[in-house]
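Bit of a strange request maybe. I'm writing a small parser for structure token strings and I need a real example to test against, not something I typed by hand. Could someone generate the tokens for this chain?
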Amino acid sequence: MRFASLANPQDIVSFENAVQRGIPADGSLYFPVEIPRLSNTEIIRLKDKPAADVAFGVLWPWLSDEMTEVELRAIIDQACTFETPLVQVGDKRILELFHGPTAAFKDVAARYLAALMGFYNAKTSRNAIVLVATSGDTGGAIAQGFAGVPGTRVAVLFPRGRVSNLQREQLTRVSPNVTSLEVDGTFDDCQDLVKQAFADKSLDKLELTSANSISMGRLLPQMTYFAFASLASAASAPVRFVVPSGNLGDITAGVLAQKMGFPITSFLAANNHNDLLYRYLQSADALAQPVESTLSNAMDVGRPNNLPRLIRLFDDDHAKLAATVAGARISDSEVVATIKKVWQTHQYLLDPHTAVAWAASEANPDPGTSDIIVSTAAPEKFANEIEASCGIVVDNSLLLNKLQTRPVRVESISAKYTDFRTKLIELPS
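Reply from user aminoacidic:
Good idea to test on real output. This should exercise your parser:
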């Protein structure tokens, strides 16, 4: 499989190079030259298989020219270490992706990316610096996933005052090969710093790579749970995935799984007030707006990195995109009301991001499909926020106590690129 720059289709690389480089030299994104399509027979064979076997069925067509079957299965065994169950709550099904070490869906892709990076580093003796900007969950998952991975140092950037208490604990109580940088700015500022570093030719010697959802090494593994859940639902009504949407990596992976042939009918992208995709679906002329802080902070993204990929998946045709992906915008007041209602009715506690998706599903019914709500984080990650806004007490002491056995390792920087560049050059070996 080969991957080309969205801005320069002549810049074509292998998956290994796409993972190691993170983004093309032109600063755009890598995109698959072609998407492998599984036959109906191949899809049916995966039904009722364990998650690891489904993951192999998804990833093997992409990676078979770069590694052996044994090597890929070893990577899957290293990464696929927790369940992603599909549970029934009332008349809805919820895909729980939060059973990993940091209680967020980012654990799935982070563990795969770390395993892939370790595999490629061992082959080449490469010593890379992994950069990741986070609005809350990604950074903690990457810090956990890459802890002690040979040949890697990690720099995590997160916006000061815009993450939950537990998220900050996960971001700052990190392994010695991880440097946590608290940025005086927004998530978009953090993302811009990472992009500038990749465009800075004077830093080439540092061998920078990305762990954000701009990395194909994260996007491809995210297809695996869409595939697994769609197969588990294949006997019921056609499936619509309702996806809490921020940087759009998750929904992009879902569309990739759909295009591989998995039985997915459509998607509902659920935005909070940071709603560029929602507005884009109404009008292709929609412009980015300043980031607004919300209860669903991991979705507080003004300029979603993966929007160009999502558009390209539909041949840059707005009408084709809008025919498969619908949009919704949910307010904080609707999030609070949804958390309370679902708790009172079903004794099932939603985190704010999953509540955005549930509210979107309720407000935008599609009688021809059966909704699967993608649950991206455990409510324990937002215990203080849920208690303050909803009056529901959430016990997250187990998560906190485990984290607080580790020392805090964090540095503060401004949103100026010169400050970040200096930190990168000074990263400990």
